[in-house]
Amino acid sequence: MDAIEAECVVSSRAGTRPRPTIGLREAVAVIVGVVIGAGIFKASSLVASLSGGATQMFTLWVLGGVLSLIGALCYAELTTTYPHAGGDYHYLQRAFGRPVAFLFGWARFSVITTGSIALLAFVFGDYMQQAVPLTFLPGDWGSTAYAVAVIAGLSLLNLRGIRTGAGAQTLLTITEILGLLVIVGAAALFADPAPARSAAAASAAVPEVAAPGMAMVFVLLTYGGWNEAAYISAELRGGPRNMVLALTLGIVVITVLYLLVTWAYWAVLGLEGMAASQAVAADVMKTVFGAPGEKIMAVLVAVSALTSINATMIVGARTSYAVGLDWNKLGRLATWDHERGTPTVAMAVQCIAALALVGLGAALGSGFKAMVEFTAPVF
Is residue 6 part of a domain? Predict the structure, then answer.
C-alpha cells in the first residue's frame, strides 16, 4: 500500500471507518444546502448599494461563482488525494501538526458548527413564529420552542443513519430551490416594471463612488461553505470523479440560483430599491403578492434555514469523529455505527451542545443576536 492509499483508509481504535454510502445527488444537496443560507436574502441589498450599476452588480455575482469554482477545484484535489471524514481538520493536521488541528477541531465543535446550528435554529424559529405563531407561549418563547424542536428533530433524523439524513437533505434542498424559483417566477410573471424613484432617492441609495471590492466581500461570504464537502469525501460513492462533479455541479447550481434571484430583486425593486431595502426578498414578495407575500417569504427563509441546519449537522459531526480518532481522551467520539453509516456519539454530543447554546441565547434574551456575537469572532 502506498502513501496515498494509506491516507484513504480512515481507521479508528475499534477498527471502524466510514464506507462509501453517499451518492452524487446527496453530495450536491449537502453542498447547496450548506452554502445557500440566509445570505442571499440579505447580502444582495448590500452588494447593490456598493455597486456602480446593474451590470457591475451582476458581474460581481458571476465573478464570485468563478472564484468559488476555482477554490472548489483546489479542494477537489485535496479531497480526492486524501479522502478523510476530518476534512479541514485532517488537512491542517498534515500541514501544521496535531496542536493546530486540535485547536481547529475544538473551535468547530464548541463554537463554529454548534453555534451555526443554534444561530440557524433561531432564524428558523423567528420566521416560523411569523408564519405559524405559537400564541400559547409567552413572549419570545415561540421562537425558542421552534429552535429546540428543529435541532432535536433533525438530530434524531440523522442519528437514524446517513441515508435518512442525506435523503432528507436532498428533499430539503429541492424545496429550497423551488422556493427561490418562486421569487424568480413572481418577478417574471406578476411584477410591474421597477418603480421609478426620484433622483434624490437614487443618489441616497447608491454611492457616488462604487466599492466593488467591499461588494465582493459580501458576495464571497454568500458563496461560502462549499469546502464542507471535504467532510463527506470518505463516504462518497464513485471516487474522485464524483467529488469533482459534486463540487462543480454544486457551485454551478448555486451561481445560477444567485443570478436568477438577484435578477428578480432587480426586476421588481430596481437597483436603488434593492440598495435601500432592509429585507429585499420580503419587499419583493410583498410588492408582488401584498401582505400574504410576507407569509410566503417567512416560510421560504425558514426552509432555507432548515436545509442549512441539516447539512451543517451532517458535516459537523464528522469533524468531532475525526478528532476522536486522534486523541485518546476523546476516543468515544470516534464511535462509528456501520449499520447507520454515522458517527452516533459525535452527532448526539453535537445536538446537546447546540441545544445548550440555544438555551444560552434564550437566557440572554437576544437569541439570534447572541449567537452572531458568539460565533463571529471565532469564525
Answer: no
